[in-house]
Amino acid sequence: MKVEVGQELPELLKHPTTRQLVQYAGAQGDFYEIHYDQAYAKTVALPGVILHGLLKAAFLGQLVTDWLGDRRKLVTFEVSYRGVDMPGHPYRCRGRISNVDGENVEVEVWGEDESGKRTTVGTATVLIDG
Fold first, then answer.
1. Could you tell me if 8 and 109 are in contact, meaning their C-beta atoms sit under 8 angstroms apart?
2. pTM of the full structure
3. Which CATH superfamily is domain 53-128 in?
């Protein structure tokens, strides 16, 4: 498969739920109340419970690994959080190839809330076997 700068990865749409946040908290060990207790989240000036940052990173990681296929290898992956996302609202994962240097491909990734605001941004480096 040929890759070119500007090529977009197939979009991944997630529909996170409060139940998923509780399950993630149990698996990851992050029991901060802002992820499951509506009343507590509001006392710290949030609109309600919010997604774990690392869960959003995992969604974006899935976007990249779903695209990778058998002839590619994820080498680096990092994200930065720019906004909050809430369960019950769609979380759209998107990506675009930003640089191709031989077998090394850099991918820009981001997660959007339902208004299209980028709430998580990041990069991945992929090694493509000839």
1. no
2. 0.94
3. Hotdog Thioesterase (3.10.129.10)
